């Protein structure tokens, strides 16, 4: 009843092409953002901030980046973890080596460095496709894992090879309390998501989608595959790199290359596929699913055990955790291969027609 | 309609999710002291993580069976980290506020230690890293909340060098010798490099670095290089399945196991037991203790915990090397609480900040240790604000095909070598972080 | 010179193990178009089952003989791998027909998690040994030819022989038996195979089961050398460059690719590693595969990719 676009007439092309053409969507998103900024801080405790919300926001950003590449441009990547690492370590180097470098600047420059690296490792995509490309991107993953362990310059000659940052402040505001960290990540995420939403409906996004749907056909109608693919790699790596820098700077504070291991790459691809390929919204759903579900299972299983009067050992809990996690992934892929985002949009379709079935 | 139902299910699931996550944390109880325990009982490093955790918990149970710390019972809860940093951080956040607040935290992973080092000062919770973590955190003036009690990797590497120098007949005999370091390619494995290079400069031996990628199941190339270069000694800095793989590859390439020395994390039963005879002669550093089936504290555990059917793990592992490591880690934490109670009131709940004072003023002399049942297991530990390690004793033990037995006398890490390195590295850290080192006056507070 | 030969041999042996894992990938990809990331978990699962049953059986049945215990354990494990194959087909694959490659890849990752969890719950996560009586200590050979001789492990040769027998058996199975022919038909064209009455789902179960058996062989060889532990599942990551180098659909590709990667990896680590600090073998393998791919995007023996608009 409420969700209906009747009567919303568009009188200009601009109005027709805006990001959220339906008024209710606009309002909903605005309310959601407002709630995230104003409501959430009053509702949750420190644990939720530090252990759930901040990782969720940062990984949403990373999965958004991966989605731009995999979902919109059709290039499967298993090297996203490496680009996160590049973002984090490059940001770190900008921060400590350039005098008076603002934190935000270091984070963004981390993203830019990741973009540059992304272009280099995107070059094989011009020749190699599909699963072959996916495996080839693992080369980036392992190479950077190695480089950050071995090349001392990247870690400022620290004896152990791990680095840390402290005393973050952005425009004079100190980023140290959970709330300030949350708001900082949220701001970055909102800005960059809006940018992504815009990108994918602009020329470049349309080129990506054409390449995804069939690259030979796209080339025939005059889209340069090289330009399209490499920009996709660059933009995606930028997002992932910024997320990596946030992960290191804001979430961990001190990190080693293992924080961006190949498991992280798989995790990010999971988020995109579970969430929905080619959907900005899906990236968030996917990140929520992958970040929250294991922690939730880990905490709820002992509770279940207690209900039935059995004490489940820690080992069993985590074995069940991965088993249930794995089965749920398979289950979701079976019932909704297009991801949680598709569920969302079918839901919206139904809402539009409700209460009439047709 | 079907879709709507699906949505409704999804929504209720989401509600349950958030509900489950914000289950109110257990309320504070004054008569309990809470010990969070980060463990890994599953995954690549489980063979070594499990005995440590069991020893840790058994000691807490033993303390409770003996009536707690001046009447205060210990509460504890495990959380599985799987040796992954982000899960470790989540565990820490989950447990730190429970049961009236965590007393201290022991991450048992160098990666998690690094991350918690950033968080602990804000939360005022000491991070105890008995025998691991960053070596420069020995300097308590800079690392106010880190306690690498009774051993750091620099100290361990130093003792190993001393040991082979003694074998060779003096430090001057080390000149021209070749030592290969086979290490886990992570901050953990890289810790000893700085010290070995320092010592190499002093005595003129050669250090060859051979990294092994996580998790260390593929080491053929590493051992081929050892076969090519024929180093005089091999130091092994591994963890988990990497240790046994190294020993097996040494056997396959014919490198004498007698010339191999592991750090204390590479010298326990899971590392050698299925190699059996093949590992005969393999040496490892013992962080004070080795396998101690005859110690009094072990008899106590067997009697008062396992005897009552409350043992955490299998009975056979009680007294094994890693089990002892966990048990001693727990003991140090318990004694920290006891010390803090001396100052802040016996039979009172101790906060993290008070705990720090306790850990900083630990003074376990031989008599106290003997009374606790650690006679012959440990040497005295005395910490201070500037020295968060408290004891630099270690010895070497050797696998004879069936069990570990000591094969050397006690050594002590050389302060003259270690201290300048610790001061230099911690000074650099303080600069980077803009930390003002604590003065002796600050420490008294 | 003798050291070079040792490195080469070491590389070939490692490569052969990679080939065995890669073979599992190829078999399944050919028959069902699934890039089965769970192959590594299957190696682990099979090896764990084998190791544990070999340990338990003497106690259960009172058998003294090591050989008999191992044999029974192998038979039981093959049975278990069949059940796994059947379950995977029934519960997952059947419902995922016609999905895109990335979705299928992710589904097999889900299966990996399940297998890891079940394996550790049932069989534990310690280090277990598989004792099939392989000799452990090395021998020095060809001392007359080279100074110092060449150090060789008999174990490696036995392993190589077992692997060769397996490959020969698989070839026979594919070329000479009706089931094998059906398998090849399915690999060529699903629809055509269906139309001549080949039951697709049964074929899938068979092919997953065969992949399970190759996983078991790889697991036994690896496990008897280095022990069985959870980390074994990471060999899948080492075998991936092999698969793309050889071509996703080619059995000879998996074998030759494995040998190339194995040798390339060891030689690079031994001769190049010391100059850059070591630890380069993993990414070197991927880079090597990538270089081959730049020249042949479908792998050495893969089917040529033809684009039509």
Features:
heterotrimer; B: 445 residues; alpha/beta; Rossmann fold; eight-stranded mixed beta sheet; two-stranded parallel ribbon; 45% helix; 14% strand; C: 309 residues; mainly alpha; two-stranded antiparallel ribbon; 11 helices; 2 strands; 72% helix
Please, could you describe this protein's structure?
Chain A has helices at 13-16, 23-43, 46-72, 80-97, 103-122, 130-150, 178-201, 203-213, 215-220, 225-252, 262-275, 280-307, 314-335, 340-353; strands at residues 163-164, 169-170, 173-174, 254-255. Chain A has a single domain, classed as ABC transporter involved in vitamin B12 uptake, BtuC (Orthogonal Bundle), CATH 1.10.3470. Chain A has a two-stranded antiparallel sheet with strand order 1-4. Chain A has a two-stranded antiparallel sheet with strand order 2-3. Chain A is globular, with a radius of gyration of 21 Å. With 358 residues, chain A is mostly helical. Chain B is of the alpha/beta class and 445 residues long. Chain B has two domains: 24-152 and 294-392 and 424-444, Rossmann fold (3-Layer(aba) Sandwich); 153-291 and 394-413, 3-Layer(aba) Sandwich (Rossmann fold), CATH 3.40.50. Chain B has 15 helices and 14 strands. Chain B has helices at residues 2-21, 46-65, 85-95, 110-123, 153-168, 187-203, 220-229, 241-253, 269-272, 296-305, 321-344, 352-360, 366-372, 415-433, 440-444; strands at 32-39, 73-80, 127-128, 146-147, 178-184, 206-212, 233-237, 260-262, 283-286, 363-364, 381-382, 393-399, 404-406, 411-412. In chain B, strands 5, 6, 7, 8, 9, 12, 13 and 14 form an eight-stranded mixed sheet that branches. Chain B has a two-stranded parallel ribbon with strand order 1-2. Chain B has a two-stranded parallel ribbon with strand order 3-4. In chain B, helix 8 (241-253) links the parallel strand 7 (233-237) and strand 8. In chain B, helix 3 (85-95) packs parallel to helix 4 (110-123), helix 5 packs across helix 6 and helix 7 (220-229) packs across helix 8. Chain C is mostly helical and 309 residues long. Chain C has a two-stranded antiparallel sheet. Chain C is globular and about 65 Å long. The model of chain C has no long low-confidence stretch (mean pLDDT 88). Chains in contact: A-B, A-C, B-C. At the A-B interface, helix 3, helix 6, strand 4, helix 12 and helix 13 of A face helix 1, strand 2, helix 3, helix 4 and helix 6 of B.
């Amino acid at each position: 009843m409420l969700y209906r676009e009747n009567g919303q007439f568009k009188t200009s092309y601009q109005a027709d092409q805006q990001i959220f053409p339906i008024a209710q969507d606009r309002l909903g998103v605005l309310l959601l953002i407002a709630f995230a900024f104003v409501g959430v801080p009053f509702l949750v405790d420190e644990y939720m901030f530090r252990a759930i919300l901040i990782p969720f926001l940062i990984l949403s950003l990373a999965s958004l980046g991966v989605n731009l590449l995999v979902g919109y441009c059709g290039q499967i990547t298993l090297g996203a973890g490496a680009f996160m690492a590049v973002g984090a370590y490059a940001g770190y180097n900008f921060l400590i080596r350039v005098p008076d470098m603002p934190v935000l600047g270091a984070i963004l420059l981390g993203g830019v460095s990741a973009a540059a690296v992304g272009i280099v490792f995107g070059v094989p995509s011009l020749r190699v496709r599909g699963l072959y490309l996916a495996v080839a991107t693992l080369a980036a993953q392992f190479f950077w894992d190695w480089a950050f362990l071995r090349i001392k310059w990247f870690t400022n000659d620290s004896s152990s090879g791990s680095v840390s940052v402290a005393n973050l402040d952005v425009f004079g505001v100190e980023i140290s309390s959970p709330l300030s960290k949350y708001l900082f990540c949220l701001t970055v995420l909102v800005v960059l998501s809006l940018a992504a939403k815009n990108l994918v409906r602009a020329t470049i996004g349309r080129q990506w989608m054409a390449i995804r749907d069939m690259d030979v056909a796209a080339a025939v109608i005059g889209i340069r595959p090289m330009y399209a693919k490499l920009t996709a790699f660059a933009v995606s790596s930028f997002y992932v790199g910024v997320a990596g820098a946030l992960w290191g700077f804001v979430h961990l504070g001190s990190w080693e290359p293992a924080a961006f291991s190949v498991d992280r790459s798989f995790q990010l691809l999971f988020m995109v596929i579970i969430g929905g390929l080619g959907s900005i919204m899906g990236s968030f759903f996917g990140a929520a699913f992958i970040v929250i579900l294991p922690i939730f299972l880990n905490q709820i299983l002992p509770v279940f055990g207690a209900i039935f009067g059995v004490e489940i050992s820690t080992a069993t809990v985590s074995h069940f955790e991965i088993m249930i996690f794995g089965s749920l992934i398979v289950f979701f892929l079976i019932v909704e291969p297009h991801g949680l985002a598709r569920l969302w949009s079918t839901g919206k379709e139904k809402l539009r027609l409700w209460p009439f079935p047709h | 309609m079907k879709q709507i139902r699906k949505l409704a299910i999804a929504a209720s699931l989401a509600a349950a999710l958030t509900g489950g996550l914000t289950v109110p944390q257990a309320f504070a109880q004054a008569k309990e002291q809470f010990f969070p325990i980060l463990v890994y009982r599953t995954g690549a490093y489980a063979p070594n993580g499990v005995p440590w955790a069991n020893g840790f918990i058994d000691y807490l149970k033993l303390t409770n069976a003996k009536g707690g710390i001046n009447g205060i019972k210990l509460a504890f809860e495990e959380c599985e980290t799987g040796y992954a940093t982000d899960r470790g951080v989540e565990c820490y956040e989950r447990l730190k506020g429970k049961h009236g607040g965590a007393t201290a935290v022991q991450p048992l992973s160098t990666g998690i230690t690094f991350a918690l080092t950033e968080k602990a000062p804000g939360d005022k919770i000491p991070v105890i890293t008995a025998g691991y973590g960053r070596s420069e955190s020995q300097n308590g003036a800079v690392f106010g909340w880190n306690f690498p009690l009774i051993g750091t990797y620099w100290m361990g590497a130093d003792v190993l060098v001393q040991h082979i120098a003694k074998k060779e007949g003096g430090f001057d005999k080390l000149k021209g010798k070749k030592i290969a370091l086979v290490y886990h390619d992570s901050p953990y494995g890289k810790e000893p490099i700085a010290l070995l290079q320092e010592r190499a400069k002093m005595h003129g031996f050669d250090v060859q670095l051979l990294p092994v990628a996580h998790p260390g199941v593929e080491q053929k190339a590493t051992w081929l290089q050892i076969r090519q270069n024929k180093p005089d000694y091999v130091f092994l800095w591994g963890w988990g399945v990497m240790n046994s793989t190294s020993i097996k590859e040494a056997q396959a390439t014919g490198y004498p196991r007698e010339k191999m020395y592991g750090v204390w994390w590479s010298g326990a039963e899971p590392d050698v037991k299925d190699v059996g005879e093949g590992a005969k002669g393999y040496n490892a550093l013992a962080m004070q203790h080795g396998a101690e089936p005859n110690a009094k504290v072990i008899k106590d555990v067997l009697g008062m915990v396992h005897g009552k059917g409350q043992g955490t793990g299998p009975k056979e592992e009680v007294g094994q090397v890693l089990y002892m490591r966990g048990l001693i880690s727990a003991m140090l934490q318990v004694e920290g609480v006891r010390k803090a109670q001396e100052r802040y009131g016996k039979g009172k709940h101790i906060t993290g900040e008070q705990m720090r004072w306790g850990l900083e003023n630990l003074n376990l002399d031989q008599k106290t240790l003997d009374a606790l049942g650690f006679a012959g297991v440990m040497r005295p530990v005395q910490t201070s604000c500037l020295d968060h390690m408290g004891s630099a004793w270690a010895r070497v033990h050797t696998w004879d095909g069936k069990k570990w037995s000591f094969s050397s006398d006690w050594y002590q890490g050389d302060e003259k070598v270690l201290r300048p390195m610790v001061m230099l590295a911690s000074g650099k850290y303080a600069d980077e972080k803009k930390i003002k080192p604590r003065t002796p006056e600050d420490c008294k507070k | 010179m003798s050291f070079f030969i040792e490195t080469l041999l070491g590389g070939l042996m490692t490569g052969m193990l990679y080939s065995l894992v890669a073979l599992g990938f190829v078999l399944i990809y050919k028959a069902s178009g699934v890039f089965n990331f769970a192959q590594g978990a299957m190696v682990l699962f099979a090896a764990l089952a084998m190791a544990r049953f070999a340990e338990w059986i003497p106690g259960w049945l009172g058998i003294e003989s090591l050989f008999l215990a191992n044999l029974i354990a192998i038979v039981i494990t093959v049975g278990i791998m069949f059940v796994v194959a059947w379950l995977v087909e029934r519960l997952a694959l059947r419902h995922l027909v016609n999905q895109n490659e990335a979705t299928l890849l992710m589904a097999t990752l889900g299966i990996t998690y399940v297998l890891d969890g079940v394996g550790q719950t049932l069989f534990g996560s310690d280090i277990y040994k598989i004792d099939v009586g392989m000799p452990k200590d090395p021998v020095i050979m060809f001392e007359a030819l080279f100074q110092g001789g060449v150090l060789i492990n008999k174990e490696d040769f036995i392993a190589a022989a077992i692997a060769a027998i397996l490959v020969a058996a698989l070839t026979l199975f594919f070329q000479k038996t009706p089931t094998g022919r059906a398998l090849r038909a399915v690999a060529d064209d699903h629809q055509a195979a269906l139309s001549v009455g080949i039951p697709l789902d049964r074929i899938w179960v068979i092919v997953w089961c065969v992949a399970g058996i190759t996983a078991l062989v790889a697991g036994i060889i690896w496990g008897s050398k280095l022990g069985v532990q959870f980390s074994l599942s990471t060999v899948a990551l080492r075998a991936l460059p092999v698969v793309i180098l050889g071509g996703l659909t080619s059995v000879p590709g998996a074998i030759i690719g494995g040998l190339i990667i194995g040798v390339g990896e060891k030689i690079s680590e031994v001769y190049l590693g010391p100059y850059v600090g070591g630890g380069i073998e993993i990414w070197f393998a991927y880079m090597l595969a990538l270089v081959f791919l730049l020249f042949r995007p479908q792998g050495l023996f893969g089917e040529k990719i033809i684009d039509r608009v």
